[in-house]
Amino acid sequence: MxxxxxxxxxxxxxxxxxxxxxxEENEIVAVFGPTGTGKTLFCAAYGVQAxxxxxxxxxxxxxxxxxxxxxxxxxxxxxxxxxxxxxVTPVMDVLSRFTGRDELQQLVDEGKIMIVxxxxxxxxxxxxxxxxxxxxxNMLPENAGEVLARMGHNSRLLITGDPVLQKxxxxxxxxATVMREVLAEEPKAEVVxxxxxxxxxxxxxxxxxxxxxxxxxxxxxxxxxxEIMDVVQVEAPDADVLTVLYVEPIAEDLEIKTENVPQxxxxxxxxxxxxxxGTGGERIERIxxxxxxxxxxxxxxxxxxxxxxxxxxxxxxxxxxxxxxxxGPNLKVWIDQKDFGPFMGQRGRYARYxxxxxxxxLGMGLEVEQA
Length: 371
Prior knowledge:
CATH superfamily of the largest domain: P-loop containing nucleotide triphosphate hydrolases
GO cellular component, one term: cytosol
GO molecular function: ATP binding; catalytic activity, acting on DNA; nucleic acid conformation isomerase activity; RNA binding
InterPro entries: AAA+_ATPase, Helicase_ATP-bd, KH_dom_type_2, P-loop_NTPase, PhoH, PhoH2-like
CATH architecture of the largest domain: 3-Layer(aba) Sandwich
Number of domains: 2
Strand content: 15-25%
Mean pLDDT: 89
Number of helices: 14
Keywords: ATP-binding, Nucleotide-binding, RNA-binding
Oligomer: single chain
Radius of gyration: 23 Å
Pfam families: KH_2, PhoH
């Protein structure tokens, strides 16, 4: 198995990333995925290994710093004494697990590992270098493009980002989303998507799950949804309900027959569906009777197959889904070839319906691929 700095990939996605990094024809490698999937780990390991083995003269790290409270990006002018330390520390923490910190510090002192402020790259050219643009979701797309334009002779650009969970929720198209789209068909560039199956860092999977849950809980409900929620809280007081989504208008806009879809979707915390439905279905029957609506109850888990199956208009489609995982800013569904048509629906209506529900609940799009 191929490795970098003694680090072996532990998942299929990480194997694809290592192969992309070691493929010298790729001038640009961009990897996107949630926290804990090894994006920075493998890219930084490649950069340091390439410099130590003399393949490149410098490993240049550029990483935006964002104030969590104000959501403002900070520059070296704002933090003249701390900027370099705050950028290099996360990379050093990752790499010091596999090589001596003193050896890494020596590379920094010799100028072989350099920290560059993303605000001041204009006019510069980086020759004979591996450039790591880390956490690109925190950059404006045009600033990320400016770093891309700084590539010089015999240079490679590595990009990491999370266009779903670590971006500002108020920004629709962050630097990671745009860069993924721009590079998807770019010659001598390879895009690698990592998903929840690739999370290997202890605690990261729970963190990703909680981030998604917080996003759903914080969703602002309309009057109809709040009325349904009020009924649910009376009939199922022990259930932890994250949100309610009124989906009937979505189906009507797409001209989907209303008998094929519910009028509302209740989303609960993982494991709480039964508390809303009731032992024999008596609770959901009362909720539907009081609201005069057809309702589906689902729960939020990182195994997205059941989630997609619950909201899709075709009731048996869940049996034909091969897998579902995060891919860039989307949920990607792999489905058997023979069932691709039923999943998409006439003129793609069913897929568009699922995508609109995903956008409302998770702020994510939909990709569908034949398995």
